């Protein structure tokens, strides 16, 4: 028997680029795990914390450097933690770990970063030397902290929405008196 007759009904021709499997880096990324608003917030967190860090690194002199150093630590940590969370969400690593633990970690990390970034931005704003690089870093720091806190609020709303959907029906006080098959 010829191989073509055996495999013809179950195989398909090359689907072409429009229908084929994704290849390269796109095969490993899955954007569907995050809702669109949260994807946007995570992208903005990543971008704004990186911009805050870059603007802070441009500062060449400072008189009260404690606020600058604290802001530097917080902005770089925020960027790296946000990058780590995005890598977990977008790659197959997400399937290898418990999804509940990833979301719980994201919840607390986002709250912590948002709060600490806001404090670092306030301290840096109070101790900066009024250079344009410092002002830009402060603006990006406040914007990034608001994105982190906005993402935290979004996660709270999503948790409440999920708990509303999971609420069981209220138990009836009176027992059923009629038979079910009547």
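^ structure tokens above, recovered residues below v
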């Amino acid at each position: 028997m010829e191989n073509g007759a055996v495999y013809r009904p179950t195989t398909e021709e090359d689907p072409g680029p429009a229908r084929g499997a994704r290849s390269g880096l796109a095969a490993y990324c899955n954007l569907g795990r995050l809702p669109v608003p949260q994807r946007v917030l995570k992208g903005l967190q990543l971008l704004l914390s990186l911009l805050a860090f870059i603007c802070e690194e441009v500062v060449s002199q400072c008189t009260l450097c404690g606020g600058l150093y604290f802001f530097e630590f917080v902005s770089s940590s925020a960027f790296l933690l946000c990058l780590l969370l995005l890598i977990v969400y977008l790659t197959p690593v997400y399937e290898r770990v418990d999804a509940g633990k990833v979301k719980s970690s994201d919840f607390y990390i986002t709250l912590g970063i948002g709060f600490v970034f806001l404090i670092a931005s306030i301290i840096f704003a109070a101790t900066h030397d009024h250079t344009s690089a410092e002002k830009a870093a402060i603006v990006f720091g406040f914007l990034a902290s608001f994105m982190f806190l906005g993402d935290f609020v979004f996660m709270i709303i999503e948790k409440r929405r999920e708990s509303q959907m999971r609420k069981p029906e209220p138990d009836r006080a009176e027992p059923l008196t009629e038979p079910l098959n009547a």
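The mean pLDDT is 84.
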